[in-house]
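Morning!

As promised:
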Amino acid sequence: MLPTIFYIGLSVLLFVIGVCGVLLRRSTLMVFMSIELMLNSANLALVTFANQRQSIDAQIMVFFVITIAAAEVAVGLALLVMIFMRKKTTNIDTMTTLKG
Amino acid sequence: MAQIALPSIDYSVILQLLIIFGSATALLIVDLFVAAGSKRITALLAFAVTIVALVAGQYSTMGSTLAGAVSYGPMSQLVNIIILAATAISILLASDALPKQGIERGETYILMLLASGGMLLLSQGSSVVMLFLGLELLSIALYVLTAIAFPRLSSEEAGLKYLIIGAFGAGFLVFGIALTFGATGYLTLSEIATHIPTSGIERGYFWVGVTLMLIGFGYKVSLVPFHMWTPDVYQGAPTPITAFMSVGSKVAGFVAIVSILQVLGTELAVLRPILIGVSIATMAVGSIVAISQTSIKRMLAYSSISHAGFVMLGVLSGDANGLQAAIFYLAAYTITNLAAFAVVMLLEANDGSDLTIADLAGLWQRHPWLSVVMSLSLLSLAGVPPTAGFFAKFLIITAVWQSGLAWLAVAAAVASAIGAFFYVRCMLQMYSGDSQTSEPTRIPLASMIAMVVVTIAIIVVGLAPWTITSALALAR
Protein backbone atom coordinates (compact mmCIF):
# COMPACT_ATOMS: atom_id res chain seq x y z
CA MET A 1 0.00 0.00 0.00
CA LEU A 2 1.17 3.51 -0.82
CA PRO A 3 2.04 5.86 2.05
CA THR A 4 -0.85 7.94 3.40
CA ILE A 5 0.58 11.17 2.04
CA PHE A 6 -0.14 10.14 -1.57
CA TYR A 7 -3.82 9.67 -0.85
CA ILE A 8 -3.97 12.98 1.00
CA GLY A 9 -2.20 14.65 -1.89
CA LEU A 10 -4.80 13.26 -4.29
CA SER A 11 -7.68 14.37 -2.08
CA VAL A 12 -6.23 17.88 -1.74
CA LEU A 13 -5.90 17.99 -5.55
CA LEU A 14 -9.53 16.89 -5.97
CA PHE A 15 -10.65 19.45 -3.38
CA VAL A 16 -8.85 22.26 -5.21
CA ILE A 17 -10.37 21.14 -8.53
CA GLY A 18 -13.79 21.20 -6.85
CA VAL A 19 -13.27 24.71 -5.43
CA CYS A 20 -12.09 25.99 -8.83
CA GLY A 21 -15.09 24.35 -10.47
CA VAL A 22 -17.55 26.09 -8.13
CA LEU A 23 -15.86 29.44 -8.66
CA LEU A 24 -15.29 29.22 -12.42
CA ARG A 25 -18.01 27.10 -14.05
CA ARG A 26 -21.14 28.96 -15.19
CA SER A 27 -23.53 26.02 -15.49
CA THR A 28 -25.37 25.31 -12.23
CA LEU A 29 -25.18 21.56 -12.89
CA MET A 30 -21.40 21.71 -13.19
CA VAL A 31 -21.31 23.72 -9.95
CA PHE A 32 -23.30 20.97 -8.22
CA MET A 33 -20.85 18.36 -9.55
CA SER A 34 -17.90 20.41 -8.31
CA ILE A 35 -19.47 20.58 -4.85
CA GLU A 36 -19.84 16.78 -4.93
CA LEU A 37 -16.15 16.59 -5.84
CA MET A 38 -15.26 18.70 -2.79
CA LEU A 39 -17.29 16.50 -0.47
CA ASN A 40 -15.92 13.29 -1.98
CA SER A 41 -12.33 14.48 -1.73
CA ALA A 42 -13.02 14.94 1.99
CA ASN A 43 -14.44 11.41 2.08
CA LEU A 44 -11.24 10.06 0.50
CA ALA A 45 -9.18 11.83 3.15
CA LEU A 46 -11.43 10.52 5.94
CA VAL A 47 -11.18 6.92 4.70
CA THR A 48 -7.41 7.21 4.30
CA PHE A 49 -6.93 8.51 7.82
CA ALA A 50 -9.33 5.90 9.20
CA ASN A 51 -7.25 3.19 7.55
CA GLN A 52 -4.00 4.68 8.82
CA ARG A 53 -5.27 4.86 12.38
CA GLN A 54 -7.35 1.68 12.25
CA SER A 55 -10.32 3.69 13.52
CA ILE A 56 -13.98 3.19 12.67
CA ASP A 57 -15.17 6.71 13.63
CA ALA A 58 -14.10 8.45 10.46
CA GLN A 59 -15.69 5.75 8.29
CA ILE A 60 -19.04 6.39 9.98
CA MET A 61 -18.55 10.07 9.23
CA VAL A 62 -18.19 9.19 5.53
CA PHE A 63 -21.66 7.65 5.52
CA PHE A 64 -23.11 10.80 7.07
CA VAL A 65 -21.39 12.93 4.43
CA ILE A 66 -22.71 10.75 1.58
CA THR A 67 -26.28 10.92 2.94
CA ILE A 68 -26.19 14.68 3.49
CA ALA A 69 -24.70 15.28 0.04
CA ALA A 70 -27.55 13.32 -1.52
CA ALA A 71 -30.16 15.34 0.41
CA GLU A 72 -28.52 18.59 -0.57
CA VAL A 73 -28.39 17.72 -4.26
CA ALA A 74 -32.04 16.57 -4.16
CA VAL A 75 -33.11 20.01 -2.94
CA GLY A 76 -30.74 21.72 -5.36
CA LEU A 77 -31.99 19.84 -8.42
CA ALA A 78 -35.63 20.47 -7.44
CA LEU A 79 -34.93 24.21 -7.27
CA LEU A 80 -32.98 24.12 -10.52
CA VAL A 81 -35.80 22.32 -12.36
CA MET A 82 -38.30 24.98 -11.24
CA ILE A 83 -36.02 27.79 -12.37
CA PHE A 84 -35.17 26.00 -15.64
CA MET A 85 -38.85 25.59 -16.54
CA ARG A 86 -39.22 29.36 -16.39
CA LYS A 87 -35.91 30.55 -17.83
CA LYS A 88 -34.88 27.65 -20.10
CA THR A 89 -31.28 28.00 -18.95
CA THR A 90 -29.12 26.75 -16.08
CA ASN A 91 -26.51 29.48 -16.48
CA ILE A 92 -25.74 30.92 -13.09
CA ASP A 93 -25.08 34.41 -14.51
CA THR A 94 -28.72 34.79 -15.55
CA MET A 95 -29.93 34.69 -11.94
CA THR A 96 -30.06 38.42 -11.53
CA THR A 97 -33.51 39.03 -10.03
CA LEU A 98 -31.91 40.08 -6.76
CA LYS A 99 -29.66 43.10 -7.05
CA GLY A 100 -28.95 46.03 -4.77
CA MET B 1 -10.17 -2.80 12.68
CA ALA B 2 -12.09 -1.98 15.85
CA GLN B 3 -15.57 -3.29 16.48
CA ILE B 4 -18.47 -0.86 16.48
CA ALA B 5 -19.40 -0.32 20.13
CA LEU B 6 -22.90 1.04 20.68
CA PRO B 7 -22.71 3.78 23.31
CA SER B 8 -25.29 4.05 26.08
CA ILE B 9 -27.84 6.82 25.61
CA ASP B 10 -29.06 9.14 28.36
CA TYR B 11 -32.34 10.33 26.88
CA SER B 12 -32.85 13.16 29.37
CA VAL B 13 -29.75 14.93 28.02
CA ILE B 14 -31.15 15.01 24.48
CA LEU B 15 -34.75 15.62 25.59
CA GLN B 16 -35.21 18.84 23.61
CA LEU B 17 -33.77 17.32 20.44
CA LEU B 18 -36.04 14.30 20.79
CA ILE B 19 -39.12 16.48 21.25
CA ILE B 20 -38.34 18.69 18.25
CA PHE B 21 -37.33 15.95 15.80
CA GLY B 22 -39.98 13.48 16.99
CA SER B 23 -42.84 15.96 16.73
CA ALA B 24 -41.60 17.36 13.42
CA THR B 25 -41.74 13.87 11.95
CA ALA B 26 -45.18 13.24 13.47
CA LEU B 27 -46.44 16.61 12.22
CA LEU B 28 -45.47 15.67 8.67
CA ILE B 29 -48.14 12.97 8.86
CA VAL B 30 -50.65 15.09 10.80
CA ASP B 31 -50.32 17.82 8.19
CA LEU B 32 -51.69 15.43 5.54
CA PHE B 33 -55.05 15.48 7.33
CA VAL B 34 -55.19 19.25 7.77
CA ALA B 35 -57.40 20.86 5.13
CA ALA B 36 -55.59 23.07 2.63
CA GLY B 37 -57.30 26.23 3.86
CA SER B 38 -56.56 25.76 7.54
CA LYS B 39 -52.81 25.24 7.73
CA ARG B 40 -52.82 27.55 10.72
CA ILE B 41 -53.56 24.40 12.73
CA THR B 42 -50.15 22.99 11.73
CA ALA B 43 -48.59 26.31 12.67
CA LEU B 44 -50.21 26.27 16.11
CA LEU B 45 -49.12 22.65 16.68
CA ALA B 46 -45.55 23.55 15.68
CA PHE B 47 -45.72 26.55 18.01
CA ALA B 48 -46.91 24.29 20.85
CA VAL B 49 -44.00 21.91 20.19
CA THR B 50 -41.44 24.69 20.55
CA ILE B 51 -43.06 25.80 23.81
CA VAL B 52 -43.01 22.22 25.13
CA ALA B 53 -39.34 21.90 24.15
CA LEU B 54 -38.65 25.26 25.84
CA VAL B 55 -40.16 23.97 29.08
CA ALA B 56 -38.45 20.58 28.72
CA GLY B 57 -35.10 22.38 28.81
CA GLN B 58 -35.63 22.98 32.53
CA TYR B 59 -36.03 19.25 33.15
CA SER B 60 -33.15 17.98 31.02
CA THR B 61 -30.15 16.69 32.91
CA MET B 62 -26.80 18.35 32.40
CA GLY B 63 -24.16 16.03 31.08
CA SER B 64 -22.84 14.29 28.03
CA THR B 65 -24.14 11.24 26.22
CA LEU B 66 -23.80 9.19 23.02
CA ALA B 67 -20.10 8.60 23.71
CA GLY B 68 -19.46 12.30 24.23
CA ALA B 69 -21.03 13.37 20.94
CA VAL B 70 -23.91 15.37 22.46
CA SER B 71 -23.84 17.30 25.71
CA TYR B 72 -26.08 19.65 27.62
CA GLY B 73 -24.59 22.31 29.85
CA PRO B 74 -25.47 25.72 31.27
CA MET B 75 -24.35 27.45 28.09
CA SER B 76 -26.31 25.22 25.72
CA GLN B 77 -29.31 25.60 28.04
CA LEU B 78 -29.24 29.36 27.55
CA VAL B 79 -28.58 29.15 23.83
CA ASN B 80 -31.39 26.61 23.39
CA ILE B 81 -33.78 29.05 25.06
CA ILE B 82 -32.78 31.79 22.61
CA ILE B 83 -33.13 29.43 19.62
CA LEU B 84 -36.51 27.99 20.66
CA ALA B 85 -37.95 31.40 21.56
CA ALA B 86 -36.85 32.76 18.18
CA THR B 87 -38.43 29.75 16.45
CA ALA B 88 -41.71 30.17 18.33
CA ILE B 89 -41.94 33.86 17.45
CA SER B 90 -41.00 33.23 13.81
CA ILE B 91 -43.69 30.56 13.54
CA LEU B 92 -46.28 33.03 14.87
CA LEU B 93 -45.15 35.66 12.36
CA ALA B 94 -45.08 33.17 9.48
CA SER B 95 -48.58 31.88 10.26
CA ASP B 96 -49.93 35.37 9.54
CA ALA B 97 -47.68 36.60 6.78
CA LEU B 98 -47.39 33.58 4.51
CA PRO B 99 -51.15 32.94 3.97
CA LYS B 100 -51.56 36.68 3.33
CA GLN B 101 -49.10 36.34 0.46
CA GLY B 102 -50.85 33.21 -0.81
CA ILE B 103 -48.25 30.78 0.53
CA GLU B 104 -50.51 28.30 2.31
CA ARG B 105 -48.10 25.43 2.89
CA GLY B 106 -48.15 23.35 6.07
CA GLU B 107 -44.61 22.04 5.55
CA THR B 108 -43.25 25.55 6.18
CA TYR B 109 -43.74 25.18 9.92
CA ILE B 110 -42.41 21.62 9.97
CA LEU B 111 -39.28 22.73 8.13
CA MET B 112 -38.89 25.53 10.66
CA LEU B 113 -39.03 22.94 13.44
CA LEU B 114 -36.42 20.79 11.67
CA ALA B 115 -34.18 23.81 11.18
CA SER B 116 -34.47 24.69 14.85
CA GLY B 117 -33.61 21.05 15.67
CA GLY B 118 -30.44 21.50 13.64
CA MET B 119 -29.68 24.68 15.59
CA LEU B 120 -30.15 22.84 18.90
CA LEU B 121 -27.79 20.13 17.64
CA LEU B 122 -25.19 22.80 16.87
CA SER B 123 -25.53 24.22 20.37
CA GLN B 124 -25.42 20.81 22.07
CA GLY B 125 -23.01 19.01 19.75
CA SER B 126 -19.63 18.22 21.29
CA SER B 127 -18.27 16.22 18.39
CA VAL B 128 -17.41 17.53 14.94
CA VAL B 129 -19.75 14.93 13.42
CA MET B 130 -22.68 16.45 15.33
CA LEU B 131 -21.61 19.96 14.37
CA PHE B 132 -21.61 18.91 10.71
CA LEU B 133 -25.00 17.18 11.01
CA GLY B 134 -26.51 20.12 12.89
CA LEU B 135 -25.23 22.60 10.32
CA GLU B 136 -26.58 20.57 7.41
CA LEU B 137 -29.98 19.90 9.01
CA LEU B 138 -30.33 23.60 9.63
CA SER B 139 -29.09 24.56 6.18
CA ILE B 140 -31.07 22.12 4.05
CA ALA B 141 -34.30 23.06 5.82
CA LEU B 142 -33.48 26.74 5.29
CA TYR B 143 -32.72 26.26 1.56
CA VAL B 144 -36.25 24.91 1.11
CA LEU B 145 -37.75 27.60 3.36
CA THR B 146 -36.01 30.34 1.36
CA ALA B 147 -37.60 29.02 -1.83
CA ILE B 148 -40.99 28.31 -0.19
CA ALA B 149 -42.61 31.27 -1.97
CA PHE B 150 -42.34 29.49 -5.36
CA PRO B 151 -43.40 30.28 -8.07
CA ARG B 152 -42.05 33.72 -7.10
CA LEU B 153 -38.79 33.86 -9.04
CA SER B 154 -36.86 35.97 -6.53
CA SER B 155 -37.53 33.39 -3.82
CA GLU B 156 -36.45 30.46 -6.03
CA GLU B 157 -33.25 32.22 -7.06
CA ALA B 158 -32.47 33.14 -3.47
CA GLY B 159 -32.94 29.48 -2.48
CA LEU B 160 -30.58 28.25 -5.19
CA LYS B 161 -27.95 30.88 -4.38
CA TYR B 162 -28.15 30.01 -0.71
CA LEU B 163 -27.83 26.31 -1.52
CA ILE B 164 -24.76 26.72 -3.74
CA ILE B 165 -22.94 28.96 -1.27
CA GLY B 166 -24.06 26.85 1.70
CA ALA B 167 -22.93 23.59 0.11
CA PHE B 168 -19.64 25.24 -0.86
CA GLY B 169 -19.13 26.17 2.80
CA ALA B 170 -20.10 22.65 3.88
CA GLY B 171 -17.39 21.30 1.57
CA PHE B 172 -14.80 23.36 3.47
CA LEU B 173 -16.21 22.14 6.79
CA VAL B 174 -16.06 18.44 5.82
CA PHE B 175 -12.53 18.71 4.47
CA GLY B 176 -11.53 20.53 7.64
CA ILE B 177 -13.05 17.75 9.72
CA ALA B 178 -11.14 15.15 7.68
CA LEU B 179 -7.80 16.92 8.20
CA THR B 180 -8.48 17.49 11.91
CA PHE B 181 -9.23 13.80 12.28
CA GLY B 182 -6.03 12.99 10.42
CA ALA B 183 -4.04 15.20 12.80
CA THR B 184 -5.54 13.99 16.07
CA GLY B 185 -7.30 10.69 15.41
CA TYR B 186 -10.45 11.82 17.24
CA LEU B 187 -13.77 13.40 16.34
CA THR B 188 -15.06 14.52 19.76
CA LEU B 189 -14.03 18.06 20.65
CA SER B 190 -12.69 17.21 24.12
CA GLU B 191 -10.43 14.45 22.71
CA ILE B 192 -9.23 16.70 19.89
CA ALA B 193 -8.34 19.36 22.49
CA THR B 194 -6.08 16.94 24.39
CA HIS B 195 -4.42 15.53 21.27
CA ILE B 196 -3.33 18.69 19.47
CA PRO B 197 -0.12 17.67 17.66
CA THR B 198 2.95 19.73 18.49
CA SER B 199 5.14 18.99 15.48
CA GLY B 200 5.44 17.28 12.13
CA ILE B 201 3.00 17.12 9.24
CA GLU B 202 0.16 16.44 11.71
CA ARG B 203 0.47 19.98 13.01
CA GLY B 204 0.07 21.23 9.45
CA TYR B 205 -3.03 19.08 8.99
CA PHE B 206 -4.43 20.38 12.26
CA TRP B 207 -4.10 24.08 11.48
CA VAL B 208 -5.36 23.76 7.93
CA GLY B 209 -8.23 21.62 9.25
CA VAL B 210 -9.27 24.08 11.97
CA THR B 211 -9.06 26.99 9.53
CA LEU B 212 -11.22 25.18 6.97
CA MET B 213 -13.81 24.35 9.67
CA LEU B 214 -13.91 28.01 10.72
CA ILE B 215 -14.37 29.03 7.07
CA GLY B 216 -17.28 26.58 6.81
CA PHE B 217 -19.02 28.21 9.76
CA GLY B 218 -17.90 31.66 8.65
CA TYR B 219 -20.13 31.21 5.59
CA LYS B 220 -23.08 30.40 7.85
CA VAL B 221 -22.74 33.44 10.11
CA SER B 222 -21.75 35.65 7.12
CA LEU B 223 -18.33 36.89 8.20
CA VAL B 224 -16.49 38.97 5.59
CA PRO B 225 -15.18 37.71 3.07
CA PHE B 226 -17.81 34.93 3.16
CA HIS B 227 -20.81 37.25 3.30
CA MET B 228 -21.75 37.89 -0.34
CA TRP B 229 -24.79 35.59 -0.28
CA THR B 230 -26.44 37.35 2.67
CA PRO B 231 -28.16 40.38 1.05
CA ASP B 232 -29.56 38.37 -1.88
CA VAL B 233 -30.90 35.57 0.28
CA TYR B 234 -32.37 37.89 2.92
CA GLN B 235 -34.08 39.91 0.22
CA GLY B 236 -35.43 36.97 -1.77
CA ALA B 237 -36.73 34.84 1.10
CA PRO B 238 -40.24 35.50 2.49
CA THR B 239 -39.85 38.00 5.34
CA PRO B 240 -40.78 35.75 8.31
CA ILE B 241 -38.26 33.20 7.01
CA THR B 242 -35.63 35.95 6.72
CA ALA B 243 -36.35 36.88 10.33
CA PHE B 244 -35.95 33.24 11.38
CA MET B 245 -32.72 32.57 9.56
CA SER B 246 -31.13 35.91 10.36
CA VAL B 247 -31.33 35.15 14.07
CA GLY B 248 -31.39 31.35 14.35
CA SER B 249 -28.58 30.37 12.04
CA LYS B 250 -26.41 33.19 13.35
CA VAL B 251 -26.85 32.17 17.00
CA ALA B 252 -26.26 28.48 16.24
CA GLY B 253 -23.32 29.17 13.93
CA PHE B 254 -21.57 31.31 16.51
CA VAL B 255 -22.04 28.71 19.22
CA ALA B 256 -20.36 26.19 16.92
CA ILE B 257 -17.50 28.63 16.28
CA VAL B 258 -17.12 29.05 20.06
CA SER B 259 -16.96 25.26 20.49
CA ILE B 260 -14.22 24.97 17.87
CA LEU B 261 -12.22 27.89 19.28
CA GLN B 262 -12.45 26.44 22.79
CA VAL B 263 -10.72 23.32 21.49
CA LEU B 264 -7.66 25.41 20.69
CA GLY B 265 -7.20 26.58 24.29
CA THR B 266 -4.01 28.62 24.60
CA GLU B 267 -3.16 27.97 20.94
CA LEU B 268 -5.95 30.40 20.04
CA ALA B 269 -3.26 33.09 20.10
CA VAL B 270 -2.00 31.80 16.71
CA LEU B 271 -5.30 32.56 14.99
CA ARG B 272 -6.18 35.71 16.92
CA PRO B 273 -4.61 38.30 14.55
CA ILE B 274 -6.53 36.77 11.60
CA LEU B 275 -9.79 36.67 13.59
CA ILE B 276 -9.34 40.31 14.63
CA GLY B 277 -8.82 41.26 10.98
CA VAL B 278 -11.94 39.33 9.97
CA SER B 279 -14.12 40.96 12.60
CA ILE B 280 -12.92 44.48 11.76
CA ALA B 281 -13.56 43.83 8.05
CA THR B 282 -17.00 42.38 8.87
CA MET B 283 -18.04 45.38 10.99
CA ALA B 284 -16.71 47.86 8.43
CA VAL B 285 -18.16 46.26 5.29
CA GLY B 286 -21.54 45.68 6.94
CA SER B 287 -21.85 49.25 8.23
CA ILE B 288 -20.49 51.05 5.17
CA VAL B 289 -22.35 49.14 2.45
CA ALA B 290 -25.63 49.36 4.39
CA ILE B 291 -25.60 53.15 3.91
CA SER B 292 -26.17 52.89 0.16
CA GLN B 293 -29.08 50.40 0.35
CA THR B 294 -32.62 51.34 -0.61
CA SER B 295 -34.35 48.04 0.24
CA ILE B 296 -35.03 47.63 3.95
CA LYS B 297 -34.39 43.89 3.89
CA ARG B 298 -31.02 44.42 2.19
CA MET B 299 -30.17 47.11 4.72
CA LEU B 300 -31.03 44.76 7.58
CA ALA B 301 -28.93 42.06 5.86
CA TYR B 302 -25.86 44.31 5.83
CA SER B 303 -26.62 45.37 9.38
CA SER B 304 -26.68 41.68 10.39
CA ILE B 305 -23.26 41.26 8.75
CA SER B 306 -21.88 44.13 10.82
CA HIS B 307 -23.43 42.63 13.99
CA ALA B 308 -21.67 39.34 13.20
CA GLY B 309 -18.41 41.29 13.40
CA PHE B 310 -19.30 42.52 16.89
CA VAL B 311 -20.15 39.02 18.12
CA MET B 312 -16.87 37.77 16.67
CA LEU B 313 -15.04 40.39 18.75
CA GLY B 314 -16.50 38.88 21.91
CA VAL B 315 -15.77 35.33 20.75
CA LEU B 316 -12.15 35.88 19.78
CA SER B 317 -11.10 37.35 23.11
CA GLY B 318 -11.37 33.74 24.26
CA ASP B 319 -12.03 34.55 27.94
CA ALA B 320 -15.20 34.18 29.99
CA ASN B 321 -16.09 37.89 29.78
CA GLY B 322 -15.93 37.95 26.01
CA LEU B 323 -17.97 34.78 25.71
CA GLN B 324 -20.70 36.09 28.03
CA ALA B 325 -20.77 39.36 26.12
CA ALA B 326 -21.11 37.45 22.83
CA ILE B 327 -24.05 35.38 24.11
CA PHE B 328 -25.73 38.51 25.50
CA TYR B 329 -25.18 40.22 22.15
CA LEU B 330 -26.76 37.29 20.31
CA ALA B 331 -29.79 37.36 22.62
CA ALA B 332 -30.25 41.12 22.19
CA TYR B 333 -29.71 40.86 18.43
CA THR B 334 -32.31 38.08 18.24
CA ILE B 335 -35.17 39.99 19.88
CA THR B 336 -34.27 43.22 18.09
CA ASN B 337 -34.07 41.69 14.63
CA LEU B 338 -37.32 39.79 15.12
CA ALA B 339 -39.08 43.05 16.01
CA ALA B 340 -37.64 44.86 12.99
CA PHE B 341 -38.59 42.10 10.57
CA ALA B 342 -42.07 41.82 12.11
CA VAL B 343 -42.75 45.46 11.22
CA VAL B 344 -41.31 45.02 7.72
CA MET B 345 -43.50 41.95 7.29
CA LEU B 346 -46.68 43.79 8.31
CA LEU B 347 -46.01 46.72 5.99
CA GLU B 348 -45.22 44.55 2.97
CA ALA B 349 -47.67 44.35 0.10
CA ASN B 350 -49.54 41.11 -0.44
CA ASP B 351 -47.49 40.18 -3.51
CA GLY B 352 -44.39 40.14 -1.32
CA SER B 353 -42.67 42.88 -3.32
CA ASP B 354 -39.70 44.49 -1.67
CA LEU B 355 -40.22 47.24 0.91
CA THR B 356 -37.95 50.25 0.36
CA ILE B 357 -36.84 52.79 2.92
CA ALA B 358 -38.89 55.42 1.06
CA ASP B 359 -42.00 53.33 1.78
CA LEU B 360 -41.52 54.07 5.47
CA ALA B 361 -42.28 57.76 4.86
CA GLY B 362 -45.09 59.02 7.03
CA LEU B 363 -45.42 55.79 8.97
CA TRP B 364 -45.85 57.82 12.13
CA GLN B 365 -49.14 59.24 10.82
CA ARG B 366 -50.40 55.93 9.48
CA HIS B 367 -49.38 53.56 12.26
CA PRO B 368 -48.03 55.24 15.38
CA TRP B 369 -47.56 51.89 17.14
CA LEU B 370 -45.72 50.20 14.31
CA SER B 371 -43.42 53.16 14.01
CA VAL B 372 -42.73 53.05 17.77
CA VAL B 373 -41.79 49.35 17.53
CA MET B 374 -39.64 50.00 14.46
CA SER B 375 -37.91 52.95 16.15
CA LEU B 376 -37.19 50.89 19.24
CA SER B 377 -35.65 48.09 17.21
CA LEU B 378 -33.63 50.51 15.05
CA LEU B 379 -32.36 52.25 18.20
CA SER B 380 -31.49 48.87 19.67
CA LEU B 381 -29.64 47.84 16.49
CA ALA B 382 -27.77 51.14 16.63
CA GLY B 383 -26.95 50.63 20.31
CA VAL B 384 -28.73 53.62 21.85
CA PRO B 385 -29.16 53.52 25.68
CA PRO B 386 -32.59 52.50 26.86
CA THR B 387 -32.56 49.38 24.67
CA ALA B 388 -31.08 45.87 24.71
CA GLY B 389 -28.64 46.72 21.91
CA PHE B 390 -26.85 49.32 24.04
CA PHE B 391 -25.85 46.88 26.77
CA ALA B 392 -24.88 44.30 24.16
CA LYS B 393 -22.42 46.71 22.51
CA PHE B 394 -21.32 48.01 25.91
CA LEU B 395 -20.45 44.51 27.18
CA ILE B 396 -18.59 43.59 23.99
CA ILE B 397 -16.51 46.77 23.95
CA THR B 398 -15.76 46.43 27.68
CA ALA B 399 -14.66 42.81 27.21
CA VAL B 400 -12.40 43.77 24.30
CA TRP B 401 -10.93 46.67 26.32
CA GLN B 402 -10.27 44.42 29.30
CA SER B 403 -8.46 41.86 27.16
CA GLY B 404 -5.89 44.58 26.45
CA LEU B 405 -6.91 45.52 22.91
CA ALA B 406 -7.83 49.16 23.49
CA TRP B 407 -7.43 50.13 19.81
CA LEU B 408 -9.83 47.38 18.82
CA ALA B 409 -12.43 48.69 21.29
CA VAL B 410 -12.10 52.12 19.69
CA ALA B 411 -12.48 50.60 16.20
CA ALA B 412 -15.65 48.83 17.33
CA ALA B 413 -17.05 52.08 18.73
CA VAL B 414 -16.33 53.85 15.42
CA ALA B 415 -18.01 51.06 13.44
CA SER B 416 -21.11 51.29 15.64
CA ALA B 417 -21.18 55.07 15.12
CA ILE B 418 -21.14 54.58 11.33
CA GLY B 419 -23.91 52.02 11.76
CA ALA B 420 -26.03 54.47 13.76
CA PHE B 421 -26.09 56.76 10.70
CA PHE B 422 -28.30 54.58 8.52
CA TYR B 423 -30.54 53.46 11.35
CA VAL B 424 -31.24 57.09 12.21
CA ARG B 425 -31.84 57.91 8.53
CA CYS B 426 -34.47 55.16 8.49
CA MET B 427 -36.11 56.63 11.59
CA LEU B 428 -36.17 60.16 10.20
CA GLN B 429 -37.97 58.79 7.16
CA MET B 430 -40.75 57.44 9.40
CA TYR B 431 -41.36 60.69 11.26
CA SER B 432 -40.93 63.10 8.36
CA GLY B 433 -42.24 62.82 4.84
CA ASP B 434 -45.75 62.20 3.66
CA SER B 435 -47.39 58.84 3.48
CA GLN B 436 -47.44 57.31 -0.02
CA THR B 437 -50.50 55.18 0.65
CA SER B 438 -53.33 55.75 3.03
CA GLU B 439 -54.67 52.21 3.23
CA PRO B 440 -54.60 50.95 6.80
CA THR B 441 -52.69 47.77 7.64
CA ARG B 442 -54.58 45.42 9.90
CA ILE B 443 -52.34 43.70 12.43
CA PRO B 444 -53.37 40.05 12.87
CA LEU B 445 -53.52 38.59 16.37
CA ALA B 446 -50.57 36.19 16.19
CA SER B 447 -48.23 38.87 14.83
CA MET B 448 -49.52 41.27 17.46
CA ILE B 449 -48.66 38.82 20.26
CA ALA B 450 -45.23 38.13 18.76
CA MET B 451 -44.50 41.82 18.36
CA VAL B 452 -45.61 42.75 21.87
CA VAL B 453 -43.41 40.01 23.33
CA VAL B 454 -40.26 41.07 21.49
CA THR B 455 -40.88 44.77 22.10
CA ILE B 456 -41.27 44.22 25.83
CA ALA B 457 -38.14 42.05 25.74
CA ILE B 458 -36.13 44.85 24.07
CA ILE B 459 -37.17 47.32 26.78
CA VAL B 460 -36.84 44.92 29.72
CA VAL B 461 -33.38 43.72 28.67
CA GLY B 462 -32.42 47.33 27.99
CA LEU B 463 -33.58 48.63 31.38
CA ALA B 464 -32.68 45.55 33.43
CA PRO B 465 -29.83 43.74 31.63
CA TRP B 466 -29.11 41.68 34.75
CA THR B 467 -32.09 39.50 33.84
CA ILE B 468 -29.82 37.95 31.24
CA THR B 469 -26.38 38.66 32.68
CA SER B 470 -27.23 36.84 35.91
CA ALA B 471 -28.26 33.80 33.89
CA LEU B 472 -24.96 34.16 32.02
CA ALA B 473 -23.02 34.29 35.26
CA LEU B 474 -24.70 31.06 36.31
CA ALA B 475 -23.73 29.59 32.97
CA ARG B 476 -20.05 29.78 33.80
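Residues 153-184 of chain B form the longest helix (32 residues).

Hope this helps with the figure draft.
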